[in-house]
Amino acid sequence: MIERYTRLKMGAIWTLHNKYDLWKEIEVLACEASVELPEVGITAQEAATIREKAAFEDARVDELEATLNHDVIAFLTNMAEHIGEPSKWVHYGMTSSDLGDTALCLQMTQAADLIDADLRALIEVCKRRALETRDMLCVGRTHGIHAEPMLFGMKFGRWAFALSRGRERLALARKQCAVGAISGAVGTYSNIDPSVEKHVCEALGLEPDPLSTQVIARDRHAFYLATLATIAATAEEIATEVRALQKTDTLEAEEPFTAGQKGSSAMPHKRNPITSERICGLARVVKANAQVGLDDVALWHERDISHSGAERVVLADSTTALDYMLDKLLWILDGLVLYPESMLANLNRTRGLIYSSRVLLALVDTGMLREDAYAIVQDNAMAVWTDVQQARQGASFPERLASDARCPLSAEELAAICDPWAFLQRTDALFERIAAL
């Protein structure tokens, strides 16, 4: 029966129609489970009639709710209009939260399954592109400043691992919200047998909440929203890197620019990273919604409804926004345009300064004190940096070192040290890990 609810798209999961459909199924299952209970008078024939005739109309439920001001009662009234006499057994011994919370948790699992599928697809794209670019040289940056040579495939690989951790967290969050409660007004099973709860939950692919006090505790929902926020933050991190790499001054990568696309109403030359920017903007929404989930944990005594209106917004918004973000991110990364020539130009832009760490160690290896070696390297590096800043012609970093009487390394030794591939001799281990992901 659970298969019936696994083929929805994200938008459909959060429609009133899907929620009412889940409510209907929960009520019917509860009736069917009660047939086996001697203290409940429902017969097998009545349960079969309820199963056959149970129905609702969205518009009729809305019409009734306008007068009743209670969504569950409006729904049950509409169901009774279809079922007739056996409807007296519908919602027997249950309370509104038994219905609403169980359905909500099922909606959350439906949404988690779609997001998990998004993550799986993204991880595969990142793995493929990491292996494609495992020999593509680029400069690594720390604080936005050129640091040491690296491989562009490492970026894709890092994203793959981050997304994989997101999947692991999502699996745990799904498990913690995949619960149901059919336990009555304050969770004591005062008018309903626990076997009914067990039957309903098993049919829907849920676990019975071990102790609900009318509501399912909202720490589960808070963890779920926080997990979505963490995944959104990862998507934002990736999109931010794409935006940074697409800057005209850097231009090492570029999100796809489709045929017929326009970049600016005023400047026809523009190719803006608008999809990456959209992802970053939506991440702010998903992250902010996590705070609402945390605020919803604290309820008065066994239950109030201060959480209800808020979570109807944030659960739908966060899952829908994240599903959209991940879909767009897949499009960006699958079609990300790379400019290896620009990467090499940027790598060489500082005239060899990015090799300073290996020069420092090579000087130490000659027996020089680290402090003395550092002074030699930094003095020459700062001179080159000034030339680069002022766009002046001048000697490269290894050339300056070779002419410094304090430096015992020959020009040939410096040339070997200042080879980008000398930094990357152990990176095969990284790509073996990526391939095994």
Topology pattern, helix = H, strand = E: HHHHHHEEHEHEHEHHEHHHHHH
Mean pLDDT: 95
CATH level-two architecture of the largest domain: Up-down Bundle
Shape type: elongated
Indicate the radius of gyration in whole angstroms. 31 Å
By secondary-structure content and strand pairing, the structural class works out as mainly alpha
Q: How many discrete domains?
A: 3
The number of distinct helices, counting runs of at least 4 residues, comes to: 17
Number of strands: 6
Q: Strands across the major sheet, in which order?
A: 1-2
Q: What share of the residues lie within helices?
A: 55-70%
Q: What is the end-to-end distance?
A: 33 Å
- Ranges where pLDDT stays below 50 over 5 or more residues in a row are none
The level-1 CATH class of the largest domain = Mainly Alpha
Can you identify the CATH superfamily of the largest domain? Fumarase/aspartase (Central domain)
Beta strand %: under 5%
Largest sheet: 2 strands, antiparallel
Q: Kindly identify the CATH topology of the largest domain.
A: Fumarase C, Chain A, domain 2
